[in-house]
Amino acid sequence: MILGIDLGQKTTGLAISEGRLATSYKTITHKSQKEALFKILEICSEESIDKIVLGYVQGKIGKLFENFAKEFRKVKPNVEVVMVDETLTTRQAIETMIKLQLSKKARQKKEHEIAAVLILQSYLDERD
């Protein structure tokens, strides 16, 4: 199983795949990166995850993603960590949900989860 992650500072979207199609999994909220790591580690154990695909962006917050990946590898060295550029995935997710005519409130609840699906699906598509 592969877990896609759209890591945020307070909200993180997750997607999952056991084959060639990414599906939304859930959105988690957290007060710190440590709490996000703990929650994601729990999910990795529950779902028998053997690879995570972590979306990242470069720039000011780039260290956030690097630090998360580093800490994750320390605790779960047997789970492969793949970093995928996630530039514009949140915008794509919002545009998709607007086309589906979801309310603004629904979009805000799901935007990170849908972005995680886009991150994971782009990784899966590149492997084919």
TrEMBL record:
CDD domains documented for this protein: YqgF
Gene Ontology molecular function: any one: hydrolase activity, acting on ester bonds
Keywords: Cytoplasm, Hydrolase, Nuclease, Ribosome biogenesis
Residue ranges of domain YqgF/RNase H-like in the record: 1-93
Presence of keyword Hydrolase: yes
Cellular component GO terms held in the UniProt record: cytoplasm
Matching Pfam families: RuvX
Record flagged with keyword Cytoplasm: yes
Enzyme Commission code: 3.1.-.-
Subcellular location: Cytoplasm
Main location: cytoplasm
GO biological process terms, semicolon-separated: rRNA 5'-end processing
Function (record text): Could be a nuclease involved in processing of the 5'-end of pre-16S rRNA.
Family: Belongs to the YqgF HJR family.
Protein name: Putative pre-16S rRNA nuclease
Organism encoding this protein: Candidatus Curtissbacteria bacterium GW2011_GWA1_40_24
